[in-house]
């Protein structure tokens, strides 16, 4: 099998010699795994913070709306690269050594008590993408017919209960294609983490082609690009599938049923 793979690479134009050895593939796959972990952590945190900010922007309390609006508009208007620098270099000035005394704290900070490069990238990605997710979710909540929200309030649900039981589930279903598209952008933006020294996929690719013995930058970058393309393409297919599926009345009926069940539970 190795001979067949080597013969195939020999017929390709360019210098593909390094890719005949598994050690280089393993080196790049470790970088891809780091990218996936970074993206998953940022995606989870961005969804949690983004939904919270969307709900806060529509809250009846002016102070809550002001804080959420400041957060969203501030971080959405700040370049991601600048956020990376702020979090990494700014975090380097803050002593976080106390985190070493809690479980898994050693994964969040380095031995000097400063924020780890990986988590600095996750925080920066979360700050930027949660602001974008907040606007996507806010648009989804506002697209829900007012009658559904008013019906929930008439059943006795509070603002938070209405958001949790009805508005957020419906908005997630409606805005799923837009959310997936933003997550694709987040996955690609992890490449910027190499600038602050995260040993991810692009940085590993650079180490390979900057070796004077290789001189194959185009070939290495092509493989690295392919490793980014495949996960993003899978996510694009998911987004396209969600886009074709119109919202059915079952989603709305389920939300109303949830509100009714909640009311029964409260009454009981």
Description:
The chain is mostly helical. It has one domain (19-267): MetI-like (MetI-like fold), CATH 1.10.3720. 72% of the residues lie in helices and 0% in strands. The chain is built from eleven helices and no strands. Helix 2 packs across helix 5, helix 3 (62-76) packs across helix 5 and helix 5 runs antiparallel to helix 8 (176-189). It is elongated and about 70 Å long.
List keywords for this structure.
11 helices, disordered C terminus, 268 residues, mainly alpha, MetI-like fold
Classified in CATH, the superfamily is: MetI-like
Distance between the termini: 68 Å
Proportion in β-strands: under 5%
| Count of distinct strands | 0
| Largest sheet, strands/sense/barrel | none
| Shape type | elongated
- State Rg: 23 Å
Question: What's this model, at a glance?
Answer:
72% of the residues lie in helices and 0% in strands. With 268 residues, it is mainly alpha-helical.
């Amino acid at each position: 099998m190795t001979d067949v793979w080597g013969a195939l690479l020999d017929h390709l134009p360019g210098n593909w010699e390094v890719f005949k050895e598994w050690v280089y593939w393993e080196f790049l796959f470790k970088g891809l795994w780091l990218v996936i972990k970074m993206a998953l952590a940022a995606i989870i945190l961005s969804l949690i913070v983004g939904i919270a900010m969307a709900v806060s922007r529509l809250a009846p309390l002016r102070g809550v709306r002001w804080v959420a609006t400041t957060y969203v508009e501030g971080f959405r208007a700040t370049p991601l690269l600048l956020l990376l620098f702020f979090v990494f270099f700014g975090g380097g000035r803050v002593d976080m050594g106390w985190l070493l005394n809690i479980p898994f704290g050693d994964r969040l900070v380095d031995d000097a008590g400063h924020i780890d490069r990986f988590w600095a990238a996750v925080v920066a990605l979360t700050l930027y993408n949660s602001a974008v997710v907040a606007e996507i979710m806010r648009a989804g909540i506002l697209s829900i017919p007012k009658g559904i929200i008013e019906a929930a309030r008439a059943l006795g649900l509070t603002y938070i209960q209405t958001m949790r039981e009805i508005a957020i589930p419906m908005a997630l279903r409606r805005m799923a294609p837009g959310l997936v598209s933003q997550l694709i952008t987040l996955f690609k933006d992890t490449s910027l983490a190499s600038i602050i020294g995260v040993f991810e996929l692009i940085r590993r690719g650079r180490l390979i082609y900057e070796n004077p013995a290789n001189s194959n930058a185009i070939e290495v970058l092509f493989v690295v690009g392919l490793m980014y393309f495949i996960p993003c393409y899978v996510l694009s297919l998911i987004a396209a599938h969600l886009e074709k599926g119109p919202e059915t009345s079952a989603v709305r009926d389920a939300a109303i049923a949830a509100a009714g069940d909640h009311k029964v539970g409260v009454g009981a």
